[in-house]
Amino acid sequence: MRIFAISDLHLSLSCPEKDMSVFGPNWEDYQEKIKTHWQSIVKDEDLVLIAGDISWAMRLDQACIDLEFIHSLNGSKVISKGNHDYWWSSLTKVKKILPSSIQAVHHNAIDIDNVSICATRFGDSLDFNFDSIVDVNPSQIKQQDPKEKEKIYIRELNRLEIALKELNQSAAIKIAMVHYPPISLDLKDNPATRLLEKYQVNFCVFGHLHNVKKGTYFGTKNNVHYMFTSCDYLNFTPILITT
C-alpha cells in the first residue's frame, strides 16, 4: 500500500456557483484535473489522505455528490475537516453518509494495516505567518483580535494532543492530518511541533494555503516530515508520502 496526500479540493459539484475557476486560470476545470491526475497515479490498493476543505457544500446531505466523486476515484481515502467544510457536522453523522471507500477522522485516530492516522483541523499560529509566499490582496486579509486568536490557538493545541494520544504507538508509520500549517517556513520549534515529536509522528500533512508562490517549502524537523498538500500547489495531483 502506497500512501498519497492532497488537500483543499474545494469540490463544487454540490454547489456549482462556488466553482474555484473564479480564482484564476490555474483553477479552470480543476475537478477534471483532479480526477485525471489522481487516476493516472493512484491504484486501488493505495491510500489517499485529504486534509480538509473537501467540499463547498453547506449541508451534510448536499455534500454527498462531492463525496461520491471522491469515492469514484481509485484507492481508499481518509478525510479530515478543514475550515471551509461547513457541511461537516459531527463525526458520527459524517460517518453515516460516507461511501465505502472513505473514512473520516476528527480528534481521533484510526489504524489501516501498519499505519496509524490521527486528525484535527488546527488553526493559525500566534508566532508565524505565510505572507511572504502567499499571493494575496492585503484587503482580503481578515484582522483578528489577538486575544481571540490566542484563545483559539490554545484550544486547537489541546485538540491536537487529544488526537495524537489516539495514535497507535506500535504502528510502523504514524501520520497526523492537520488542515492549518503547524510549522513555520524556517522550521522553528513551536508548541505544535513539540507535540508532534512527543507522539513520534512520522508524517504531518496539511494544506489551507492557496496561491502559493513557486518554490519548495517545509521539510523535515526532528524526524517529522512536514508535507504541504494544497491541490493547486501540487498541480492538482496527489503527492506520494510513503510506500
Walk me through this protein's architecture.
The chain is α/β, with parallel strands linked by helices and 243 residues long. It has a single domain, classed as Metallo-dependent phosphatases (Purple Acid Phosphatase, chain A, domain 2). It is built from 5 helices and 11 strands, in the order βαβαβαβββαβαββββ. The mean pLDDT is 94.
Keywords summarizing the entry:
single chain, alpha/beta, Purple Acid Phosphatase, chain A, domain 2, six-stranded mixed β-sheet, 5 helices, 20% strand, globular
Helix fraction, binned, reads 10-25%
Task: Give unreliable regions as ranges.
Answer: none
Q: From the alpha-carbon coordinates, what is the Rg to the nearest angstrom?
A: 17 Å
**Broad structural category:** alpha/beta
* Count of folded domains: 1
For the secondary structure, the number of strands is: 11
Strand content: 15-25%
Supply the CATH superfamily name.
Answer: Metallo-dependent phosphatases
- Report the principal-axis shape: globular
Enter the CATH topology name.
Purple Acid Phosphatase, chain A, domain 2
Largest sheet: 6 strands, mixed
